Amino acid sequence: MMTSLFSYLIPLFLFFSNVFASDYHEQLNLKPLPQSSLLASFNFRSNTTLSQFEAHNFRYFPRSLGQILQHVGTRELHLRFSLGRWDAESWGARPWDGTKEGGTGVELWAWLEADTEEQADLKWLTLTNALSGLFCASLNFIDETRTTRPVMSFQPEGDHGSNLDNLHLLHGVLPHEIVCTENLTPFLKLLPCKGKAGISSLLDGHKLFDASWQSMAIDVRPVCAQGQECVLQIEQTIDMVLDIERSKRPRAQGNPIPRPPPGHDLKCNATKPYHSGDTCFPSDFAEGEDWSIDQIFGKFLRGTCPLTDPNVPAVCIHVPERRDIFTTANAVELKNSDGLSRCYQVPSEGEFSMILPRMSREGDNAKTIADETVEPETPLLYAERSLTGHGQERGGVQSILTNPSPDTAVEFVYMESLPWFMRIYLHTLKARVEGAPGVKDDIIEEIYYRPALDRARGTQLELRVRIPPASIVFLTYDFEKSILRYTEYPPDANRGFDVAASIITILPSTSPGAPPLRLRISNLRTTSLLLSLPTPDFSMPYNVIIFTSTAIALAFGGLYNLLVRRFVGADESPEGAGGLKGKLAFLVKRLSAKFKGAKVRTE
Ligand SMILES: *[C@@H]1O[C@H](CO)[C@@H](O)[C@H](O)[C@H]1NC(C)=O
Ligand SMILES: *[C@@H]1O[C@H](CO)[C@@H](O)[C@H](O)[C@H]1NC(C)=O
User: Fold this and answer.
1) What is the residue with the minimal CA distance to atom 9 of ligand 2?
2) Which atom of ligand 2 is nearest to the CA of 284?
3) How far apart are CA 420 and CA 480, in angstroms?
4) Would the keyword Transport turn up in this protein's UniProt record (predicted)?
């Protein structure tokens, strides 16, 4: 009897849960990283059906952004604001496989619907200008010299069906843009709960932009599931790596200026041979570090967003099951079956916080650390890039790409979009492989190169490379520095010019023999570079102007003085000339005498 009742109830329950499945959810993932860091990943995602969107019924989709996208026929949009450097050596693989981060500054790419390339360019111009206003960023500076049309590096993420033919991909970067609070505020305004409730209530400009690394992302794409209407999905993501110690430091209590902690408070690794009173190597793990959500974010989590899917837990943390975590009342803990993470359902009203106490110190310390922290995942590839060479005329770029895997080759597309004043010599492009024995150097499988035109477009270089297991590839090329017109230099010309990060797209491994079969693309970006160009001494014209002006002023002053001054002996001066009144009377007398004389002469 019981079983038959249940068998009726379950499909009914599933049916209802399907109908009422929310189209919006948000989640915060916390992940302690080595060296006293904490990765906080905020994710907000919502669905709006395409028919609703086209009928201007935007539902969860922010209207301001929706209207811009409709106006310029944008089918897919990706916008990134990033700051800092992801330290892959200590923090391991990037969150979201690196697909939700951009190079330092602002990065934008979109698929636009247009019949011709010129029409796509016009729409791109409208899009960048509109987004620039919406996000308070200088996106309108993405002109034709900073726009590229990537050929191999980007693939559409959404389901575009058959109308992929008239879609144009355009990509632009602003490496010099400084991401700050004025970009966070519009970002929060796009969320259904606008940062007032739910996990977005934790976001605060002071903490976000004090992070060691941060990236804000907006992705809009159409998604079609089988047997359902296609939806337009908007996903907003904020990832940041907080330094726990720095975030916990109290602010503005008689100490408004953040200062480095005194030497005796530093946590040093005393096992290093050079450790002494005045040298300190920071210790790897914040062993004794305890923290709570309100300490590191500066505020409590205020309830849940009423629109969010109640089945998706609001906060998740990646620590082994052995570690104790305390939360405020009424939160429901859900342990993940892998034993490495757990999630919390937050009460819909009131404030929520979570405390991670110090690690238990009993027994062997090293063993405890291994038991109570999750080892970061090894990334598929390490990448770094730097400028080589010296002098004002020529330079070089060297990229070092390391495949840490002992048995899997990695295939990727390496893309550079360089400013026009960096004229590269393609014949100097070389790849050298180190590590695996018997590997030839011809690992570049395909090259796409679009040379720069002065003041019209930049260089675009895309390379498809296959890097053998456990080896290092050195990609090098030389370039020549152009001399700019003096009006083309920025006001801080001696700082140098930012060169955008190179974008590395790791392709899915398709060979079925290789052990881990990856179906998804992952991304990686190097840091941006600071290129110094030959800069004229701008103080020279200034010096010349000042010097000539002084000389003229001196000569003119003296000459004029000699010409107009009348010299009289002291005894010849009129009486009473000592006072101001006397002087004035004398002047008037002289002037009137002069005028009279003049009149007589003209008559
Ligand atoms: C949105 O739609 C996609 C595809 O149908 C689905 O996978 C997802 O769970 C839906 N909801 C949210 C909040 O993303
Ligand atoms: C100190 O450095 C050594 C390597 O020199 C390392 O093995 C050890 O884990 C470090 N200890 C801490 C606490 O960071």
Assistant:
1) 284
2) 14
3) 10
4) no
CA–centroid distance, residue 61 to ligand 1 (Å): 14
Query: How far apart, in whole angstroms, are the C-alpha atoms of residue 32 and residue 325?
Result: 13
- Burial of 595: CB neighbours in 10 Å, binned 0-12, 13-18, 19+: exposed
Per residue in 284-326, pLDDT (tens digit) is 655 557 889 988 898 899 889 888 888 889 999 998 888 888 8
CA of 249 relative to ligand 2 center, distance in Å: 25
Calculate helix-pair angle for 63-72, 117-135, nearest 10 degrees. Answer: 160
596 lines ligand 2 (CB under 6 A): no
| Of 142-151, 246-255, 456-465, 559-568, the least confident | 246-255
- State both tokens at 364: 């062997």
The model's pTM is 0.82
CB 269 within 8 A of CB 281: yes
Residue 25 CA: which ligand 1 atom is closest?
A: 13
Calculate mean pLDDT across residues 496-521.
Answer: 79
Cβ–ligand 2 contact at 271 (below 6 Å): yes
Q: How far apart are CA 113 and CA 109, in angstroms?
A: 13
**Of 351, 343, 285, 355, nearest to 317 (Cα)?**
343
pLDDT score at 371: 64
Tokens (6 digits) for 383: 């990448």
Decide the pairing of beta strands 24-33 and 315-317: parallel
Cα 451 to middle of ligand 2, angstroms: 48
Q: Which ligand is nearest to the CA of 368?
A: 2
- Identify the weakest region by mean pLDDT among 416-420, 500-504, 576-580: 576-580
Minimum CA distance residue for ligand 2 atom 13: 283
Ligand 2 centroid, distance to 368 Cα (angstroms): 14
Q: Is 388 near ligand 2, meaning CB less than 6 Å away?
A: no
User: What domains are there in the chain, each with its CATH number?
Assistant: 27-87+95-243 (no CATH), 264-296+316-376 (no CATH), 382-531 (2.60.40.740), 544-602 (no CATH)
> Which tokens in the block code for residue 131?
């987004």
pLDDT tens digits for range 212-226: 999 999 999 999 888
348 CB within 6 A, ligand 2? no
Enumerate the H helices of 258-312 as residue ranges: 293-297
Atom of ligand 2 nearest to the CA of 271: 1
Q: Are 67 and 57 in contact (CB under 8 A)?
A: no
Cross-strand bridge partners of residue 172: 108, 147
Contact call for residues 556 and 562 (beta carbons, < 8 A): no
Sign of CA dihedral 92, 94, 96, 97: negative
Taking every pair of Cα atoms in the chain, the longest distance, rounded to a whole number of angstroms, is 137
What is the position in ligand 1's atom list of the atom closest to the CA of 309?
13
Name the closest ligand to CA 273. Answer: 2
Choose one of 22, 46, 223, 235 to mutate for the ligand 1 pocket test, by most ligand atoms within 8 angstroms of C-beta.
223
Is 421 within 8 Å of 458 (Cβ atoms)?
no
From 448, 384, 454, 444, select the one nearest 423 (Cα to Cα). Answer: 454
Neighbouring CB atoms inside 10 A of 554's CB total 10
